[in-house]
Amino acid sequence: MSESPRLNEPPVSRHAPLKPLWHPVAWPAWIAIGIGWCLSRLPLPWIFALGRLLGTAFYYLVASRRRIVRINLRLCFPSLDPEATEALLRENFRHTASGVLEALLPWLNPARDLSPHIDVIGAEHYHNARAQGRGVLVLAAHFTVMDVISAPLGRLGGFDVMYRYNKNPAWQWLQITGRQRYFEGVVEREEIRLALKRLRAGRAIWYAIDQDYGRKHSVFAPFFGVPAATIVATSRFARLNHSPVLFMTTSRDLVRQRWSITFHPVISDFPGTNDQEDASRLNAHIESFIREQPAQYLWMHRRFKTRPDDERGFYSKS
Fold first, then answer.
1. Dist CA 33 CA 316 (whole Å)
2. Residue 121, beta-bridge partner list
3. Do the strands 245-253 and 136-140 form a parallel or antiparallel pair, or are they unpaired?
4. With the CA atoms of 32, 33, 35 and 40 taken in that order, what torsion angle do they form, in degrees rounded to the nearest 10?
């Protein structure tokens, strides 16, 4: 489907203007990017080994994140004994560090072809959904495999991605330019009108639905049996454009040194007539995906930060 010339006009930013790329606030980020550029040239076995090594180091060094992961695991897997919980926590740190390193490969060494190491499963579900001509909502959860799979996704055609604004000009530049190499549309998550415009033009919008964005645009729906603030935008997007909705999940095989992308069938009878029920259905899907590979979910974010009025916060230290 052809797009109008206005479709790709940059939206008006709702954020304060970024400082210049050369501003001192960006210097530490530029140093990190320079180191990342060098690391992205390492052989793939070295990348995997370094990810495991850094994950082990961060487990011991970053106590605040270790605490958040431990709280999340205890909430979601209460039947695990302390030893099993700690083993899962350590493995999760290894996968998380690997995910950070892997993002360097497509962003800072785009000439490197990772396709032979990435399996795409169920692509027919994506193509069949796009063939309906109403755009596609490709839902994701925050697994630790993210941007390393950009090239094969871009080659599927019609794929746009939503991202979270970063106030550091260097990181903002890196995430936008890195993704624009593979995706025609790179849409900031608050630019809802632009996302809907691209959806109506038949594009596929890839975005994650599993973070806590507060009460304003959310309902409380069970996630591993715990009420979690869950966004309702997915149902409303789908209603506005009658777009098919499907999940895409990703995984990493540390032994075989491979990644995989899996497109799942279109969710039937979605959206329904009730935001609460829709949110519960989506959380149930995500929960089932996590149970297949619990060490590869991004447990470091505070998924249960927003609480019902009568509940005390899980992450407070007092």
1. 33
2. 262
3. parallel
4. 140
Residue 214's domain is classified under what CATH number?
3.40.1130
In a domain, 37, yes or no: yes
- Give the residue carrying structure tokens 């994650």: 208
The candidate with the shortest Cα–Cα distance to 230, out of 298, 272, 284, 271, is: 284
* Contact predicate 191/167, CB 8 Å: no
- Asked, for residue 16, whether it belongs to a domain, the answer is no
Q: What residue has token string 């890196």?
A: 174
* Number of domains making up the chain: 1
The answer to whether residue 307 is domain-embedded is: no
Token pair listed for 199: 């959806």
| Locus of tokens 């740190």 | 93
Q: Which domain holds residue 178?
A: 23-296
pLDDT digits (tens, 9 = 90+) for 88-123: 999 999 999 999 999 999 999 999 989 999 999 999
Provide the residue count of the chain.
Answer: 318
CA atoms within 13 A on the CB side of 72: 23
Query: What spatial distance separates the first Cα and last Cα of the chain, rounded to whole Å?
Result: 56
* Distance from C-alpha of 277 to C-alpha of 75, rounded to nearest angstrom: 22
Distance from C-alpha of 67 to C-alpha of 142, rounded to nearest angstrom: 19
Condensed to tens digits (0 to 9), the pLDDT of residues 127-182 reads: 999 999 999 999 999 999 999 999 999 999 999 999 989 999 999 999 999 999 99
Task: Record the pTM.
Answer: 0.90
DSSP 41: T
303: in domain? no
Strands 218-223 and 226-231: antiparallel
- The span from the CA of 273 to the CA of 238, in Å, is 12
What is the C-alpha separation between 47 and 13, in angstroms, rounded? 36
- Starting at the edge strand found earlier in the chain, the sheet holding 258-263 runs 118-121, 258-263, 245-253, 136-140, 204-208, 159-163, 185-188
Alpha carbon distance 85, 71 (integer Å): 10
